[in-house]
């Protein structure tokens, strides 16, 4: 009797969190022109963000980086106060 067991190779994608080796790259890109584009300093500081629950810039960057569990990442950000793109930089980044 033969049994064939189909082994499916399922690579588990890990979410982007501060523990991820590419976390600093992610934050750098989110601060840069493809993300919030932070410019100016102190009271003059300006950046782009949709506010509310807009995590679209972070989502786009994670998609470009690849091999990231985007859904779990956004969930993690929200749980740590990163409701919108700039709050991910302000509240989730431990630096
Ligand atoms: Zn924001």
Structural class by sheet pairing and helices: mainly alpha
**String of helices and strands:** HHHH
User: Uncertain runs with pLDDT below 50, 5 residues or more?
Assistant: none
How much of the residues is beta strand, in percent? under 5%
Biggest pleated sheet:
none
> What is the residue-averaged pLDDT?
93
Structure description:
With 95 residues, the chain is mainly α. The chain has one domain (13-36, 49-95). The protein is built from four helices and no strands. The protein has helices spanning 23-31, 56-65, 70-79, 85-92. The longest helix is centred in the middle third of the chain and has 10 residues, at 56-65. It is elongated. The chain starts with 22 loop residues before the first helix and ends with a helix. Zinc ion binds at residues 49, 51, 84-87.
Précis, in short:
The chain is mostly helical and 95 residues long. The protein has helices at 23-31, 56-65, 70-79, 85-92. The N and C termini lie far apart (59 Å).
Architecture blueprint of SSEs:
Layout: H1 23-31, H2 56-65, H3 70-79, H4 85-92
Zinc ion is lined by residues 49, 51, 84-87.
């Amino acid at each position: 009797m033969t049994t064939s067991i189909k082994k499916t190779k399922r690579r588990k994608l890990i979410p982007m969190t501060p523990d991820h080796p590419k976390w600093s790259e992610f934050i750098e890109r989110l601060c840069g022109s493809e993300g919030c584009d932070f410019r100016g300093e102190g009271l003059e500081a300006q950046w782009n963000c949709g506010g509310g629950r807009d995590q679209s810039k972070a989502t786009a960057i994670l998609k470009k980086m690849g091999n990231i569990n985007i859904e779990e990442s956004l969930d993690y950000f929200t749980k740590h106060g990163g409701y919108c793109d700039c709050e991910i930089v302000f509240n989730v980044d431990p630096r």
